[in-house]
Amino acid sequence: MKMTEKVRNLINEQINKEYFSAFLYLSMSDWLNQQEWPGAANWMYVQYKEEIVHAEGFVRYMAMRGEKIELKPIEEPKHEWNSVLETFEEALAHEKYITAAIEKVAKAAEEDGDRAAKLFLDWYVLEQVEEEVNGEDNVMLWKKAGDHPGALFSLDRQYAARTFVADEIPHLDN
Ligand code: FEO
Description:
Largest sheet: none
Number of strands: 0
Strand content: under 5%
CATH topology: Ferritin
Bound molecules: MU-OXO-diiron
């Protein structure tokens, strides 16, 4: 079954959004490194890699369905923030925006009777729940650390421990 134009266009837009997410987190990671928050920078760098996997998941799915991808220019991300907390607050706001975008694609797949695309998108719907929970936790922890140098130092060290494990996205052939 061919995709409807609406679903194809929305998935193409989502590919762009996921690559933009990668750019945003890479930019945050770089800024955090410059500000000497190596742990938080590591966390954002792992997030950058996750977003590449999300984007590639859509690219591979389109290839599997024989649908054309249309790569559009990726918007330039911000380069400066006022605090480490602000990067995590903006990351959370960004994930909420991505959740709404994913819900829109899933709804279109459902309305257009593309059950295969809907099944594929369900993984992303659930992933967004995790993304928002992580985002809320990050904001809560950095807020709690407040202005206490000791708490900030140990929190940053904790964030240095995050490692990248590529998500296995279901329904893709290899
Ligand atoms: Fe690709 Fe952070 O959602």
